[in-house]
């Protein structure tokens, strides 16, 4: 059986800059691997991390000398947040239960799991530098 060719549209990759990789990387590694993304190491690149999805898209977390400031501000022009899918409400609840121990700060906890509306099941959090993630239960 041959596999389907890779998609020609959709997300190729997303690169997030962080002020301190040593602080942010453990939180992102826990989250991305919990969602089934595989970590990749690039030999000789100590200031970045990569996680790859099975659809071949990938997320990069990088510390750069060009970063300005110590934290992200989602209310300024630019990216507001990153939304990722999770399998179902059970997976969402499990991630929520462990997230604070891995450096994530929950947003809108008083409205969980419907902060995005009554027909939308999701969890919102910020990494140690204020980058917001929304996890959406699709099943």
TrEMBL record:
Superkingdom of the source species: Bacteria
Gene3D superfamilies on file: 2,3-Dihydroxybiphenyl 1,2-Dioxygenase, domain 1 (3.10.180.10)
InterPro entries, per database record: Glyas_Bleomycin-R_OHBP_Dase, VOC_core
Name this polypeptide is given: Glyoxalase
Residue span(s) of domain VOC: 10-138
């Amino acid at each position: 059986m041959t596999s389907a060719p890779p998609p020609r549209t959709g997300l190729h990759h997303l690169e997030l800059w962080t002020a301190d990789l040593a602080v942010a990387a453990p939180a992102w590694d826990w989250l991305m691997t919990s969602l089934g993304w595989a970590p990749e190491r690039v030999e000789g690149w100590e200031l970045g991390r990569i996680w790859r999805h099975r659809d071949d898209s990938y997320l990069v977390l990088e510390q750069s000398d060009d970063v300005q400031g110590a934290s992200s501000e989602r209310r300024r022009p630019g990216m507001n947040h990153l939304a990722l899918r999770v399998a179902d409400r059970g997976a969402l609840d499990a991630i929520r239960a462990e997230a604070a121990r891995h450096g994530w700060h929950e947003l809108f906890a008083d409205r969980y799991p419907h902060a995005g509306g009554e027909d939308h099941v999701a969890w919102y959090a910020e990494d140690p530098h204020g980058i917001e993630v929304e996890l959406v239960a699709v099943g």
